[in-house]
Specification:
Helix content: 40-55%
Distance between the termini: 152 Å
Mean pLDDT: 77
Number of strands: 3
Strand order of the largest sheet: 1-2-3
Oligomer: single chain
Structural class: alpha+beta
Largest sheet: 3 strands, mixed
Length: 162
Amino acid sequence: MQEDPSVQPVVAATPRAPVFIAAACAAVLAVSGCNRSDAPPPSADPPTAGQPVDPAPAAAKRDEQAARDDLAATAGKVGAAASAVVDALQATVGDAAITTNVNGTLAKDPELSALHVNVDTQDGHVKMSGQAPNVDARERATRLARAVDGVKSVDNKLEVKP
């Protein structure tokens, strides 16, 4: 069979065609973004010589100093509160030690040891309640309690048995 010269052969798509199409699309996308700018529009009054171009660092420095000042003030408050807690704890421990020492001292006395004497201490002030066998034992309880270290005053509410 002879070939007809008026008929053009059909060109089959080659593997290079998709590459060419992809390259053309990339070129179109790249060119279309050329006029786009991500930079902010210029301000109405551009900075002059000696003025900062960006005010953000100065604002950040002010914010940093304010944060430091706040932190220092808070640290002072925390320190004062911690000191108050330590003082209160020492007073409580001191009062407990005074109560223990007064009870121990009273327990050594033959007339007071067998009796129930309630001792409470607050800020070094001792309050005793309960019963004493006689007036002398009651007065002795006051003297013994006053002799304990840390006692500021004694409120003797011991009642004498009839």
